[in-house]
Design a protein that fits this description.
Layout: E1 2-7, E2 12-19, E3 23-31, H1 43-65, E4 74-80, H2 84-101, E5 105-109, H3 110-116, E6 129-134, E7 139-146, E8 149-155, H4 161-171, H5 179-186, H6 192-195, H7 215-229, H8 234-264, E9 269-272, H9 279-291, E10 296-297, H10 309-320
Parallel strand pairs: 1-4, 4-5, 6-9, 9-10
Antiparallel strand pairs: 1-2, 2-3, 6-7, 7-8
Helix pairs in contact: 1-2, 3-10, 4-5, 4-7, 4-8, 5-8, 7-8, 8-9
Length: 345
């Protein structure tokens, strides 16, 4: 079986091919540059760009990989959650193509795609594990006793971790999205103990529970940023703030991940989402879990952000389990709780 994956949940237009025999055959991702001037994603512009680029991108992928449309055994498309207009572009395209070819189609949960993304490169990753979903839209801890069964243990009550990174980076003039640029800037920051930057809290770690709250950290970072920018060394000050903020955010994530493992009696953590590319998070979490006899799994850097390879793989997993059907329609859901998914069997 060769599955075509389609991803259009936000501002990345992406497609990929996953094969039972060959694994990932190829993938394409186009990040829409038009949103940078607005400092955030404009939903209508995102939908229009998907319409413009999706068909030529799929045709190019098929041509370059030597796969003809009649070889496709199924089509997987992101059905939610995400921007509704953007989702409808991919859903209509994927369902329509499947109908024309007479093959089954399946709507994939975007976050399940992220959970399974590390398995694209490491087939040895097996449940049970705790999934940490960290991106610009999500901060979530999920117990995964088996693929298809998800229990949300805790999530952010306000801003997502990636959202805080992006907003503070924008305030620093690092552009949008700016999470990666902020992490790079943090490398030249001094340790909070020697920089003069007031300490940042580790929010909600002094009480029981697995919920997150990062809006206070964002506000504090903005306040301190204004002070250091008015000082004698604003460039070094921005780097110091970036480091202090990153350390506080990552410490909070690691503390809550360990707490989640203890709560559900598991050893390993799978990290997914754009913030999973953060090298400091990778180092801290891997070292902490190694001391406990566990392991942290991460997707390759290219598959941390939105991509269609994870959608093709998640769709393939469910199609192999007998899910999916010949198309009689399609649907997209802007909101779709992860724990509402059906088990594989």
């Amino acid at each position: 079986m060769i599955v075509l994956g389609i991803e259009t949940s936000c501002d990345e237009t992406a497609c990929a091919l996953y094969s039972t025999a060959r694994g990932l055959i190829g993938d394409r991702v186009l990040t829409q540059a038009i949103h940078a001037e607005y400092g955030g994603v404009v939903p209508e512009l995102a939908s229009r760009d998907h319409v413009r680029h999706l068909l030529p991108m799929v045709d190019g992928l098929l041509r370059d990989t030597g796969v003809v449309r009649t070889e496709l055994g199924g089509v997987a498309y992101t059905a939610g959650p995400g921007l509704l207009g953007a989702l409808l572009v991919g859903s209509a395209f994927g369902a329509g193509l499947a109908f024309a070819l007479g093959v089954p189609a399946i709507g994939v949960h975007h976050m399940e795609g992220h959970v399974l993304a590390p398995m694209l490169d490491d087939a040895s990753i097996k449940p049970p594990f705790v999934a940490m979903l960290v991106s610009g839209g999500h901060t979530m801890l999920v117990a995964v006793p088996e693929i298809g069964r998800y229990e949300v243990l805790g999530e952010s009550l306000d801003d997502a971790v990636g959202e805080v990174f992006d907003k503070v980076a924008k305030q620093m003039g690092l552009g949008y999205p700016g999470g990666a640029a902020l992490a790079k800037l943090a490398e030249s920051g001094r340790a909070p103990s020697s920089s003069g930057v007031p300490p940042f809290p580790r929010p909600m770690t002094d009480r029981p529970g697995l919920e997150f709250s990062f809006s206070g950290l964002k506000t504090r970072a903005m306040q301190i940023l204004r002070l250091v920018e008015a000082g004698d060394a604003p460039e070094q000050g921005r780097a110091d703030v970036a480091r202090a903020l990153q350390e506080a955010m990552v410490d909070t994530l690691v503390i809550k991940a360990v707490r989640a493992l203890d709560q559900v009696g598991m050893k390993n953590v799978v990290v997914a989402g754009g913030v999973g590319a953060n090298l400091y998070l990778r180092e801290r979490l891997s070292a902490t879990l190694a001391q406990r006899g566990g392991h942290a799994y991460f997707p390759r850097q290219a598959f941390c952000t939105d991509n269609a390879a994870m959608i093709a793989y998640a769709g393939w997993v469910r199609l192999q389990a007998g899910q999916g059907a010949l198309v009689s329609g399609f649907a997209a859901r802007a909101r779709w709780p992860l724990d509402q998914l059906s088990p594989l069997v």
